[in-house]
Amino acid sequence: MKLDSLAALNAEREARRPAILVTDTADGSQRLVREAEFATDPLAETFRERLLSGKSGLVEVEGRSLFLTVQVPPVRLLVIGAVHISQALCPMAAALELDVTVIDPRTAFATPERFPDVTLLAEWPDDAFAQIGTLDRYTALAALTHDPKIDDPSLIAALKADCFYVGALGSRKSHARRLERLGDAGLSPEATARIHGPIGLDIGAITPAEIAVSILAEVVATLRRDRIKGRTAGKPADCMRHDIDA
């Protein structure tokens, strides 16, 4: 890889932006395609498939062999609340290769003993987000504290950042009150409609572990939405990050 291409690719990685480096194997020429350029590129459909899979590899285009180096930001899961559900959720999320961070200003709950091997920030959400960096559409956020002082600022930040998944724990009545508060805070009904509330797929979950399963299932379903749509339409389904048949 040429040094200028490597530097440009690293810059996109640091900014958590997807990018694809196209290398012509015949002459070694390279071009970096950034996110804003994907849709108008002649290889747009190939890029879409590769971005869904997250895999680099060779493609044949009009008799030319091209190697596509695919860079997709790691999917990040921000768990708001160091609660029992979070304790069950974190190891499951790690098994799914999600980059997990637990945020809770309540130091009695946010302890390394309760969350070993997990990035843990005993901070208020706004302060924690300042440490983490920009939230983006490769970020999922699950608000689990039941405390509006903690959950609401997190939800507002996630919605404004266009996170791909935003969920909040609570009954339908508490969620209705939450929507009222967020509306009073200036969010539109279209924005708050993106919140998955009550959080998680309806699998009849009762225990913290079962609720964690339902949350992660909903996160994965949201992440793989294009794959699910393709299956529904009778198109080949892309298996993201896995070398298995759809």
UniProtKB/TrEMBL annotation:
InterPro entries, A to Z: MoCofactor_Util/Proc (IPR052698), XdhC_Rossmann_dom (IPR027051)
Pfam families for this protein: XdhC_C
Domain XdhC Rossmann residues, every copy: 77-219
Domain of life (superkingdom): Bacteria
Name of the protein this chain belongs to: XdhC Rossmann domain-containing protein
